[in-house]
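Budget justification, computational time. The allocation requested in the original proposal was used primarily to generate structure tokens for proteins on the priority list. As evidence of use, we reproduce two of the resulting records. The first is shown immediately below.
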Amino acid sequence: MKKILILFFLAAFLSCQKKDSKEENPNIVLIMADDLGWSDLSFMGSNYYETPNIDKLSKSGMTFYNGYASSANCAPSRASMMTGKYHPDHGIYTVSPSARGIDKTRKIIPIKNTENLDLDFFLMPEMLKNEGYINAHIGKWHLGSKGFYPEQNGFNINIGGWEKGSPKGGYFSPYKNPKLEDGPKGEYLTDRLTNEAIKFIDQNKKNRFFLHLSFHSVHTPIQSKKEYQENYSKKNGDENHNRPDYAGMIHSLDENIGRVLNQIEKLGLSGNTLIIFTSDNGGITAISNQYPLRAGKGSYYEGGIRVPLIFSWQGKINAGTKSYERVSNIDFYPTIKNIIGHNNKNLELDGIDLNPIFEGKKLDKRALFFHFPIYLEAYNVQKDAGRDPLFRTRPGSVIIKDNWKLHHYFEDNALELYNIVEDVSESKDLSKINKEKTKELFDDLKKWRNDKNAPIPSEKNPKYNQKFVDSLIFLIKDKKLSGRVKGLIRDLDH
């Protein structure tokens, strides 16, 4: 009897401890910028863009200098972040369709893309909702059409989230967004989303909340407030960062992130709020060059997938710390899962828990994988800095392991190997020189693809025309075709 009483009180004690632990779970604010490049912030090295509030956030927590998006464009990156799973699981590889670019320039038939994130996935917000969180999605969603919106995916509140990626009505009201009421004419979208975010925080200051503040900035169209653009037009840029309209958009983004941070501090929530800041993919090279990183959005060179990343949690993550571990937004889900003590062990997440890094520990060695069996046409044939000027992405896979990175292209079975510490610009292909390392990474990549049942396109495209491709590339190199050349290519095609 005595033993039974002891066990009863022990169970009750542990239950209370668990309850107390749950009650100490933090609010979570995940701030996602759109198309913001790795070097597009002053704390990341830009001398042109001014981001004092994001700089302050960086100083308040841990900045990851080798932070990655799980994809080089928005929808697949967001899908992997929300599911915690790599792309072969959810099938979202790009923004539909997958056969982008001129037919005659594609050697193979790409894998068909999935447009809607399947409702069978147990998403990060659904996990948080199960743990008692009030969830709000504010801003860009882009993970499915009607019936697949945030409110069907674990969010109590959805303001602005629907199928469109770029703001249909631009950055000034009226927005032409069925999930966002128009404000006064000329209201700026970034300001409006922040107003809604602050309202949500105020209304839920006594609750546990998850805020996914998903700004459209700095996605095209590039539209700044007039006064901000004029201010930056008076400032000297450099060869990489020099557009005053883009700088004005970054200024508004930073200003509004500062408003959110100030409100959290004003309400006394800083000690119990985990803040994550990142971008869904790299910046567009033709708008803001990410040198020394090669290429940008849509490419699987570093400029397309390496992004700004900050974790801040007052009292839990040491201020002003830096990490050079290679981490990805696919790691957010398992990290948050462990912070809040969610005990479902059957989620089979592909990311890893980052909490040991916050405690000063090293991560166990692991590789990062990127699988994109699709095409993404050039944005600017003269400036994209891709493998060839016609595409930012041709079908292929990538593995990053330690300081090494291997690209594998499906059209011609070509391999490229780079040491991305010694050659962060990916300018020296070492695949023919270091055959041992090439084989090691290629074997790892093939095993991963096999384990994931990753689809690999192999069917030849009957419309492919090598002479047409050669003519296009000749004209591009001769600079008779430049910039965004869709119209000129269409004329040649006919």
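The second record produced under the same allocation is shown here.
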Amino acid sequence: MSLIQPRTPSGTLELLPRDQMVFQHMLDVIRRGYERFGFVQVETPVFELKDVLLTKSGGETEKQVYFVQSTGSLQQGHTPDMALHFDLTVPLARYVAQYERELAFPFRRYQIQRSYRGERPQKGRAREFYQCDIDVIGKDKLAAAYDAELPAIIVQIFTELGIGDFTIHFSNRKILLGLLTGWGVTDSEVQKLVLREIDKLDKIGLDKVRESIITLGLTTDLAVKLMELVAMKGDKDEMLAALRGMNSQDHIFAEGLAEMTTMVESLRALGVPETRTRINLAIARGLDYYTGTVYETLIDAHPEIGSVCSGGRYEDLASMYTKSKLPGVGLSIGATRLYEQLADLKLLPPVPHTVQVLITQLESERSAEYLALAADLRAIGLTVENYLEPAKLDKQLKYADKSGVPLAILFGTKECEAGTVLVKELARKIQHEVKREDLVHLLLELLSQRS
């Protein structure tokens, strides 16, 4: 019988143990960051009913959906009535509408789960990927200060991850929409198309965006004026002053400027470093889904990899599922894409092995003592592994070193008679002999030095 070649489907992520630890550490840092600000975790089914999931999606989205169908149902000729979720936003909308009466608003939720899309696998686009979403949902209204809280969370998370300098670029769609209205571009569909073209600025450049906008019906003068605006640079106070100086009388523009001012004030009150955020009017987020504040996060030294965290404000999350008005603001970290990009750039620092101590087996007749010591160390909170079969010490130490375990404990008849234990630092190749009663103190000291 010929062997089947072991392989994984393209567009999926499968890691070796040491890499998986790094990825899991990243997810843990994100989770802690979300919870530190009072957000609660929810988890929704990996598949949703088709009519619920695809309520607002168009034909292109439906082409990317993985439908779910049992073998029995398929044999009976039934069409699928379920599909894997392609993001976490639609499941959130369904969740909030379904449990609206039981939830406390504003509802602060985070969700870390895999999503599935029928993409053509390529760099940055996967079929199966982790998303780490965070949203605040209000009932009827939601204060603009929440728009600042989410970037404050991301700043803490990315700083703890140690990925280097990064900047959260933000804008408010109402500013550009209000200006377009004041300049006589009042067709809402044209306005949306203009913002979609602006969102392509970093991909196709200013000249091509200007040409595209002119084809939408804007005059050359207006297109030039708009491009000068989105290319404007300065610190946050300078940008706000420049916008106030435009003296626009449009009420949508005024709303956007007021919300942006509140956001800047709130970011400072939250202690977010000035260098971590900046106003960038070219951030438009092409999706019409967003109605106010929008964000994109770039790693300063590697802008070519694109945004590693994005989102914004939306006016009504669940309008297809409930008559209640549920405005919100959210951000999403594409964890799989972020990990792959950072790993390629070697920007993710190594993380400690989940096992802190390996207890070797020098003498098989002492196996019960080795097991008892491991139990004692676990009782004080250490993660400990026993080597459970007789083997040469060199083999056991090589196993620990290759696995990434930092410390190994050795003791046999000689050490037991002397009342001592040997502790080996594998990376530094240093060995300590310590009295049995001082073992815990030494282990904690060595582990604290590593952290």
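A brief technical remark on that second record: The first strand starts at residue 40 and ends at 41.
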